Amino acid sequence: MDVSEIERLVAILGKSDISTFELEGDGWRLSLTRSLPERAVVKGGGAGSEVSSGGVFTAPSQQTERVRDDFVKVESPIVGSFYRRPSPDSAPFVSEGDVVRKGQTICIIEAMKLMNEIPSPCDGRIHSIKLSDGQVVEFGEVMFLLEPLA
After folding, report:
1. Which residues pair with 40 in a beta bridge?
2. Which 3 state secondary structure label does DSSP give 70?
3. Which of 30, 33, 115, 121 is deepest in the core (most CB within 10 A)?
4. What is the SS3 assignment for 146?
5. Which class does domain 40-148 fall in?
6. 3-class secondary structure per residue, 6-58
7. Domain coordinates of the chain in residue numbers?
């Protein structure tokens, strides 16, 4: 099995509801696993602290800074390279202060040569962008703070 075959399997896994895939051959074994939590976490605790994300995969993380309780933290669903623009010569998807709509692409994370578009989990205003273009992002790391629009 070569790298291109593995990349094809990863692409298929990314488009399906499968969370675990294993394959064995002569002297080798491939195991692919992904996490499928579907929620955006709004820090601040209390009832109603989670908001449905409509397909944005995020994981809870510890609060490391003081932010308004109503801000939505958009966290990375995967490990990869964070990109603010679709190509090096294009304008960024969003900038601080921009108003975004639920489902609008706000960044791309490249993982295993696959470009994963990350949508906004809600209508809101980009309060802050926590990463630089090309920066490595960890699973669950906060990428954006959104001020939800009522």
Report:
1. 51
2. coil
3. 121
4. strand
5. mainly beta
6. HHHHHHHHHCCCCCEEEEEECCEEEEEECCCCCCEECCCCCCCCEECCCCCCC
7. 3-33, 40-148
CB 28 within 8 A of CB 131: no
Cα distance between residue 14 and residue 32, in whole Å? 11
- Give tens-digit pLDDT for 129-140: 999 999 999 999
Q: Which residue has the tokens 């993982």?
A: 111
Q: What pairs with residue 50 in β-bridges? A: 41
Q: What's the pTM?
A: 0.55
For residues 84, 118, 59, 69, the Cα torsion angle rounded to the nearest 10 degrees is: 70
Q: Report which residue type is found at 12.
A: I
Token pair of 37 as six digits: 């939590």
Those residues whose C-beta lies under 8 Å from the C-beta of residue 124, and which sit 6 or more positions away, are 72, 99, 100, 146, 147, 148, 149
